[in-house]
Amino acid sequence: MNYRRDIDGLRAIAVLPVVLFHFGVSAIPGGFTGVDIFFVISGYLISGSLLDDLERGQFSIGRFYWRRARRILPALTFVIVLASIAAWFILLPTDLHEFSLSVIAASTFWSNIYFWKTTNYFSIDAALRPLLHTWSLSVEEQYYIFAPILVYLIYRYASKRWLTILLPIAIGSFAVAVMATTLAPTAGFYLLPTRIWELALGAMLMLKRPPALASRLAMELIGLAGFVLVAAGFLTISESDPFPGYNALLPCVGTALLIYAGTDRAGAEGSAPIATRVLRFAPLVWVGLISYSLYLVHWPINSFVHYLSLKAIGVPTIVAMTVASFALATFSWKYVEQPFRQKRAFTAPLPIFAFSATAIALLCAVGLTGALGNGFPQRFPDFSTERIRVGDWRNGVCFNEGETRIETWNLADCTRTQGFATNVLLWGDSFAAHYVPGLDANAQKVQANVIQYTYAGCPPDLSYFSYARPACTRFNERALSVIRDANVQAVILSGRWSDYQIRGFDGLQKTVDRLREMGVKVYVIGQSPEFVADVQKIAFFATREHATNTSWPMAMDPDINKRVLPFVKGADFIDPLAYLCDAAGCSYADAGTKQFLYFDYGHFSTAGAELAISKYWPSFAASNEVAKAKVQSAGHGPAEPPQLATGAGLRLPGG
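RESULT FIELD:
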């Protein structure tokens, strides 16, 4: 294969938006799609390398992995070692324990599976995981397991019918990716089956090259279309959009068009399309050359900076992180990557395989030590955690965690307040259940028999389906029977809406419509505050900063409730953020008693639940009339808040 400077330029186009997106530059909401550009490039180049070997009679699985090990492992090992050293001094015990497990996963190339099970890529605490970005390397390495074998078999036994074999695989993978955006979005984002089509697109472009176009204008238009599609991916896609389904076509097809436009048919630089000449621009080529190291180093820098602040970072910090990332990436490229890519005694197959095995074993040993040592709590003797009063969610009966049969739910056990004229169903996920501990203290305010019907990770949406929680659909459907059988007059829907916005809220509106058809009053409680980390960690860092109050910035989309509001027409909408937060942030603990209002990053403790219910829950009088809290009925303006008791000693900003 001939070296193509434009592909290095394309690598720069891929990595720069990824870095800026991760650093919080909102002008590029789809910067994460740069990873998809990398997948297409990898599919193209790896297939070309394999084809060269086959046509020269030099094909060997060992040779293939020798080249991959030289390219990938040295810089990866360097970055994991640096990150492990930093983690020892920075991460608190529970986080060092999790980091240690991710070291094992990253060094053995299954971190995409590990993070699929532990972290949503777009979750509020994702930035606190220093090796999260290695998921994409794991996808590629898993692809390398079968790619050389498949290319060999097609070349040797299928008469080079590349499209006959690869196109159905790509179409099938794309179909799975599209379905996964609604049925299993987290798995769809992380796992190989939904990404194969992106790698296969690059492979098909190399193995079955499209014919050259004689028209110069046509090639110019193809290059321009490639840039437009890639730019559209960066500027129009956001983390709230389904991905990588149809939306991934923008960066992937755009990349394929740019690669095709740059195919050197005429040879002379001046004859190349404008798009290709732009990609050959020297500064872009340089960034492309260091792009692998830049991708590796920028995320741990970002992660540790966020961990030390637990807040949104400002422009000066972003600039400093960018400079540091480029400096460290340049060092890694020159002194780690390049020596291993040159022909030297230690880059021969046997030394490389010995180095690879040793590096992986040592990294796994480091990870295992940190995991077995439970994060070595003795490193932070001044950090301690207290047992926060949570209350009884009646797990396994009224709060299903996916391990119990839905039929175990029963009305008698799950009626949490009793003795009133009105029956109210509290339906939702854990962000509905976390209100339950505050009911008893506010029973006379609520004036209703509140029935708890909750399921972990299962929003109150009749159209919701998840492969991770297939029973959720049946659980939600049963809610309609509960409403009828228990003579429920009002339903309160509550959930972690920030988790579900990627799927859209159309199903929520359909659920509200169905409930109104049944003749029940419907309330929807919006998203309550979420912080970037456990509140006890926040308190620890706040104490170190000598903070004078218990207010802390929330770490979620501040407009999430505005996004939910258009999909609850016909229901009364309650915005918790209007009560629990102000412009400076949200209180994680009571300023007077120092009681924590949450027991983790966003679920209410007993004290927090009591405060929340006293502040904004609807009250049900014997006449079934509702005393409005600070409620927004969809399509109407905010109602006036009632005068509510806030509880002795509990004070919040704006409360």
